[in-house]
Amino acid sequence: MSSGVVEAQQVLARAREVVASCTGFRDTAISPTAVDRVVRAELARGRSPSELLAELQRPGAPLARALLDAVLVGETYFFRHPEQFRFLAYEAVPAALSRGTLTLRGWSAGCASGEETYSIAACLLNMAPPGVRVEVLGSDLHEGRLEAARRGVYGNWSRREAGPLLHPLYQEVGEGRVSILDPVRAVVRFVQGNLLEPLHEMYGLFDVIFCRNVLTYFSPDAVQMALGHLAKALVPGGFLLLGTVEVDHPPAGLVRVGAPELQSFRRPLPREQTPPPAPKPVPVAREPEPYRAAASLRATTPPPPPAPTAVGLHTEALQRIESGDESGAATLLEKLLQQFRDYLPGMLELALLRERAGAREAAFALMHTVRDNAARLPPDLIIEGPEPLPARFYRASADAFLTLGAIE
Ligand SMILES: C[S@@+](CC[C@H](N)C(=O)[O-])C[C@H]1O[C@@H](n2cnc3c(N)ncnc32)[C@H](O)[C@@H]1O
Taking CA 393 as the corner, what is the angle to CA 389 and CA 397, rounded to the nearest 5 degrees? Predict the structure, then answer.
């Protein structure tokens, strides 16, 4: 083998290492033809292998950027994996509102040309009740794609049948192209960022993060590193949604929510993380002699179980949902509602479960009841539930659900 060929192979090998360390990609996910094309183009311009090797020592040099641009896959389209956008609308948004958030914040991590970022923004805007603001960040390593994202003009390839238009998002501008609606653009911001590094803290924490079809290219170590950064950027109670086959265990510090294929994970609230303190032993007062026998009798008879409360049953249903048993949760909620007919949090929960199970008519009927019952209550009346929430929250959630149904 000639020395020129050996040197060219050294450049190719070094180029792959540079790509792997910059992106987190495992070697088998780096396209050999893409790397080969970039390196050969440089050699064809008369540059020597040693010159290229020297340039590859400098991270951020033009050659390294050309390699990244060539290997990063930017496949994306609006409302990709629509079931995750339904989860966003009907689970993540109500959960954030229940925490009293006044700004719904989303992050599309690895956003490519921005279709996912704008889809998140359109969904949040459509679901946000009056007075609640929306902010969405899109980040990617590929600067060229971010420029396209900021332009916000797209062709047919971004609008595929697999991604139904779930929320108002764009307008036609001729020649098969669409432009993102101004209110959606206004709440979106794009920045360059590498998922191997933590997002700068000036961007704050997020109610929901989508990182889909990105980690699938990463090495196992890089997956863990990126997941750690993503989990830290969630508000307690916030959700991380990953691509369909990206992890088989919940990321550290998060719990799985819903069916495994939903790939949705939640950062628990602080009070869910710490087990309640063990009850302090109650000092037993010495009873006078005649009562001792009766007391020992009492001790052998177990106390009757406490009567189930609506909130207790609802919490049990939530635990079932979290463990993936949605039909068990629905049965429990039905029983709950037979006993506590006016319990709004249970009605809302059951309606959302019905919608997810495809029983749309039943979901709508229940949502109408939620809306009508909530409308009869003083808007600021706090309704006891797993989260105490004002009646206006139930009305706004039901309104949003029913309005969205009319749009679809
Ligand atoms: C296939 S696209 C996914 C787009 C969108 N999330 C979706 O699911 O439709 C993957 C994107 O991840 C970006 N990416 C890959 N490695 C990255 C990294 N280490 N940091 C940030 N973005 C990265 C790529 O540039 C590419 O735009």
Answer: 135
Q: Is 140 in the pocket of ligand 1 (CB under 6 A)?
A: yes
**Quick check: 367 pLDDT over 60?**
yes
Ligand 1 binding pocket mutation candidate from 113, 158, 214, 242 (most atoms within 8 A of CB): 214
Q: 74: CA distance to ligand 1 center in Å?
A: 6
Under a CB-based contact definition with an 8 Å cutoff, are residues 210 and 121 in contact?
no
Q: Which residues pair with 188 in a beta bridge?
A: 136
pLDDT at 388: 61
Ligand 1 midpoint to CA 386 (Å): 37
Give the model's pLDDT for residue 306. 60
CB of 354 sitting under 6 A from ligand 1: no
Residues 6 or more apart whose CB falls under 8 angstroms from that of 209 comprise 106, 107, 108, 109, 230, 233, 234, 238, 239, 240, 241
- Measured distance CA(329)–CA(326) in Å, rounded: 5
Q: How many Cβ atoms from other residues are within 10 Å of residue 292's Cβ?
A: 11
Secondary structure class of 236 (helix, strand, coil): strand
Ligand 1 neighbourhood includes 194 CB (under 6 angstroms): yes
| Ligand 1 center from residue 66 Cα (angstroms) | 16
Closest approach atom of ligand 1 to CA 211: 6
Q: What's the average model confidence in pLDDT over 333-340?
A: 88
Is residue 58 located within the same domain as residue 154?
A: no
Using a 6 Å cutoff on CB, does residue 167 contact ligand 1? no
The answer to whether residues 353 and 345 touch, using CB atoms and an 8 Å cutoff, is no
* H helical segments located in 130-206: 143-151, 182-186
Find the domain containing 65 and state its range.
3-71
Closest CA relative to residue 365, chosen from 389, 348, 378: 348
* The amino acid at 68: L
Residues 101 and 203 in one domain: yes
In a domain, 189, yes or no: yes
pLDDT at position 25 is 97
Domain holding 131: CATH number?
3.40.50.150
142 in contact with ligand 1, CB cutoff 6 A = yes
Domain contains 239: yes
Q: Phi, psi (5° rounding) for residue 309?
A: -105, 160
SS3 390: strand
Same domain (yes/no): 135, 248: yes
Task: Note whether residue 32 is domain-resident.
Answer: yes
